[in-house]
Amino acid sequence: MLCLATGKAASKELERIDQLFFSYANNSSGLIDPEGIESFCSDLEVDHTDVRILMLAWKMQAEKQGYFTLDEWRRGLRALRADTIVKLKKALPDLDKEVRRPSTFEDFYTYAFQYCLTEEKQKSIDIESICVLLDLVLGSRFGPQVDYLVQYLKTQTDYKVINMDQWKGFYRFCTEISFPDLSNYDPDSAWPWILDNFVDWMRAKQG
Amino acid sequence: MNSSNQKKRNFQIEAFKHKVVVDPKYADKTWKILEHAITEIYNHNASGLSFEELYRNAYNMVLHKFGEKLYSGLVGTMTLHLQEMAKTIEAAQGNLFLEELNRKWNDHNKALQMIRDILMYMDRTFIPSNRKTPVHELGLNLWRDNVIHSSKIQTRLLDTLLELIQKERTGEIINRGLMRNIIKMLMDLGSSVYQEDFEKHFLEVSADFYRAESQDFIECCDCGDYLKKAERRLNEEIERVSLYLDSKSETKITNVVEKEMIASHMLRLVHMDNSGLVNMLIDDKYEDLGRMYNLFRRVPNGLPTIRDVMTSHLRETGKQLVTDAEKLKDPVEFVQCLLNEKDKYDKIINLAFSNDKTFQNALNSSFEYFINLNPRSPEFISLFVDEKLRKGLKGVSEEDVETILDKVMMLFRYLQEKDVFEKYYKQHLAKRLLSGKTVSDDAERSLIVKLKTECGYQFTSKLEGMFTDMKTSQDTMQGFYAAYAAELGDSPTLVVQVLTTGSWPTQPSITCNLPAEMSALCEKFRSYYLGTHTGRRLSWQTNMGTADLKAIFGKGQKHELNVSTYQMCVLMLFNSADRLSYKEIEQATEIPSSDLRRCLQSLACVKGKNVLRKEPMSKDIGEEDAFFVNDKFTSKFYKVKIGTVVAQKESEPEKQETRQRVEEDRKPQIEAAIVRIMKSRRVLDHNNIIAEVTKQLQSRFLANPGEIKKRIESLIERDFLERDSSDRRLYRYLA
């Protein structure tokens, strides 16, 4: 349903959005901090580890994990045309659909990695967190791949952290490679080395 | 004369009319004369004939348009005569057949020549304009048709010729001159006659003959003998052709011999038990090998067959050599075996395979294959060099030294992991320099020059740095003693080598407690050195030094002990104590425990060098052991060498460590190569980058594609490179 907000209605909406923001924000920092997010999530009746929160953050283009700035909040809620918790809740299924569209998903996937880089010069994420993230963003669509990949990541010793290039490689792997036969995996292609090893490990398992 | 009746006429010269012109019987008469003459010629009665008269007769016939009669008459009469000759030939018995044929052929040729002379006018006018066969050629054709192809002669002729050749092949002497004439006759009759009536059958029969003979030989001869026989037969056939066959037959008959005697049995010969190629190689049978080479090069796939068998044999023996546990116990022996093997095959290729380049290449690729099967080859080659430079080259002439070093370089070139060799070479060179144990400085430098030529400046710059340090240290010592001459009169003599870190193999810097006399002296040196060189840091490498101690034992025996620094520290303790426990020694010297154990073992547990006594007398060093000076120590030498700073084959853990260091060193080299390539190409796909990097690093080591991939990913992470957004196989250089 397309609603063209008139000038007056638009500014009313923005007001409500801002109000909603300040209801969760920390007064001294002017940001919604982890505590605020927790109460926001409980109002939304969505667990803060749910992927839909991540999607929300993506919609907001939130920079720092656990925090929302006013600009980010505005950006996200305006795009979703939601100025109340109720409307926000209703908007979530559509958001899910939007994110899962192939054209947008890759962007969301990349965002998910960046969002988890908490330190300033950080470029990689530890294996444990990667496994959680993989399951969160790819688990529903590529269940078997994610299961095996997670198992492999936890047992291998070559890498203690995963970088963006490898992260992107995982998604590409899921969308391009036939699973579990792996018949179209070409080791001479430029797959990240960790995936070459994953494929060897899979093949050894399959005997 | 009635002038009124005279008509006006043109002036005409009328042709001179011979009175015989219109007489038809004239032609017959003339022909009869000629026919008779021909008969006389064939009957060897030509002397009574007049050439001019006969010529004129023939001339007239042609002139008066009787050329056809003359020609057909010639054909007819010659045919009759030839048929008669054929009968005579047919009647000849046994051996006389060929002789008769030859004789009659000569007769016919003489007759033909005379006949042609007589009929020359016809030959030049009537025959060409009427497209008839010229007289000489006609004569040959008639001979062919009436004699050679006569039913009673054709087969008999062929059989006779083949029989004679067969006889000659079985060792009998035949009349070669006669053969030559007969064969020449066939050649003169035209190449198709020679080929159809003789050569074709000759080749077939020869093929059968050689097929059978080769089958017999191969059952009873060994390879060398068989090849001798094949060579002999080949030469025989070549000689046969030169003596009495058409030279064009040479290639054809040699092809037959080559096919039947060599090509058909090639594999069986090469693989023959006890006498085949491999046995010849093992026993250095140069003559047999040379013969095999010369024969096999004549047949398709001959040389590749030899080369392949040689290659697989070489690879097999090489593989056994490098994995032979016995040989691996002695690295110098191991390398010497490799050199011997190379010499052996160089000689074979030189003497027997006429320095054939493809064989040299096969030799090189085989060596490269098996030398690299053993990952310790680089280390062992360095140990070989070490032994030579420490003592092996003592007393050897300069020329011979160069030869040996060149041979070492040749082995070096086969190594894939040249960087591993470099590491060991550096370690061993360091030990040689520090122990002062090099036979010839010139030889050392010569080898470094060779390595530089082969690998470039970077390979050897650090090595040269080591030599410089040694020289500089000498100068420093001179300066030190000059400056402190007065003070140092009574002190022990100190010799310091100052090593620049980076040029020398990396060593962990371990210090221990030096005896008081030494530490004072060392401090003096340190302040002297730092006085003249500001901004530097010195650390004593106590694990690398040596010491000479003068010792007097219980019964007054005097000896000079040549020991390591650690051993010196331990022994000096006994100047102020008779008994020391392991713990006390450890505490006093602060030598790391594994080194201390080795040190004590070398002082107390080795026969002939046991200057210390240990309780209990076990071979191992226990924490509770006690040590005493061995008052009963004896040695027939005044100078006793106990320290070991000589280069040795590494132990397993040392080997692992070196290997790890090599792998670590390779990472930056791979990255540098990747960056270099990407900087110039800007964008490159995965497979090409792997290929380029491998190629660039080839002269140092064989880069592992997996390792290259890891380095690329590391460079991506550090934002040197990125992947192309649409084609994940492409990499892009980020400025």
TrEMBL record, chain A:
Superkingdom per UniProt:
Eukaryota
Alphabetical list of Pfam families matching this protein: Cullin_binding
**PROSITE patterns found in the cross-reference section:** DCUN1
Location of the DCUN1 domain: 12-203
Question: What SUPFAM superfamilies does the annotation carry?
Answer: EF-hand (SSF47473)
Q: What does this protein do?
A: Neddylation of cullins play an essential role in the regulation of SCF-type complexes activity.
> Would you tell me the protein name for this molecule?
Defective in cullin neddylation protein
Q: Which organism is it from?
A: Coffea arabica
From TrEMBL, chain B:
**Is the keyword Membrane assigned to this protein?**
no
SMART domains (UniProt xref): CULLIN, Cullin_Nedd8
Q: Name one Pfam family in it.
A: Cullin_AB
* GO MF term set: ubiquitin protein ligase binding
Name the UniProt key words of this record, in alphabetical order.
Isopeptide bond, Ubl conjugation, Ubl conjugation pathway
- Could you tell me the Gene Ontology terms of the biological process aspect for this record? ubiquitin-dependent protein catabolic process
Record InterPro entries = Cullin, Cullin-like_AB, Cullin_homology, Cullin_homology_sf, Cullin_N, Cullin_neddylation_domain, Cullin_repeat-like_dom_sf, WH-like_DNA-bd_sf
- Ubl conjugation keyword on record: yes
All copies of the Cullin family profile domain together span 376-604
Would you identify the family this protein belongs to, as annotated? Answer: Belongs to the cullin family.
Q: Which PANTHER family match?
A: CULLIN
Protein name in UniProt: Cullin-3A isoform X1
State the gene name recorded for this protein: LOC113719048
